[in-house]
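Model it.
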Amino acid sequence: MSYRPRFTITADLLARVERIAALRERIQTAVVDVAWIPALQKDSRARNAHSSTAIEGNPLTLEQVRAIEEGREIPALADRARREVLNYFAGLRFIEKHAKKKTIGHEDILDLHRIVAAKVMDQGDAGRYRTMRVRVGPYVPPSPAEVSGLMFELLEWWNGDSRKLSPVLSSGILHYRFEAIHPFADGNGRTGRALALWELYRRGFDTHHIFSVDEFYWEDRPRYYEAIQNVRRQGEDLTVWLEYVAKGLEVSLQRVWTRIRKFAARSAAPRLTLRPRQEQLLQFLRDRGGMTPREIWDALGVSRQGALDLIKPLALAWLIVREGTRKSGRYRLKNL
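Modeled.
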């Protein structure tokens, strides 16, 4: 028997979902036409890593998090704070790499937690469901003996009935239910927020990975925790929680749109419409860091000339650059 969430589609929730859909359409259309995707992705990744770790008490500023991503040294930085951020960046890369995975299993959840919580857990083991009772403020999560079964039910719902809902709703439901089960001894908050983001990626809601909902939660942590606690006071009715999550996503999309307009105002790069293979190439470069021309045409399954036809517009639009000699050159994403 899979998990069955309880909620009501209120007028407020419906209105927000409709506004979110309109904003998303505007953003997705704009982003496909411009050459700023790598910079927007880099900015979003830093904001997600900063916000999700800061919610749990990490003291680093957004600029320090950016510096860590770029490999810059920061004096007098605590090892744990750095490790938490590096772990979260790795977790984001993991869900980006598996954004199109159709079925999520226990091992996927354990792998993500193993990445996010490595060497920063106060109790328990990274990548293993908890074997101890835990307490989160006034809330006592289910016993260790119940965790595996409850996660099985949640995964069954996530891989099945969740697809009948808007990703705005399914990501919010997944976020809450994971935190309620609290399957790990430590690191549940970061893992749960990453799972909610993964659901948006899997459902094609954020195809370019440029949203940062966690920033909304971090800006008012007491309200975030209160929204979670309120579901329990309401007898596991998720309605108010989903209204809160939808507001966060709407605010996040509005901020993305503002950033896109700022890029548009200062960009002199030629405009282009990305073809599917060009989007695939950008994803390859993002995952691998750089590729030779031969690696590109082999990966895309095209001829040498076909690869060059895909590469040339991207280079002219400043999306990618070539480094090295004529024989040993590699293409990489441009750091905008």
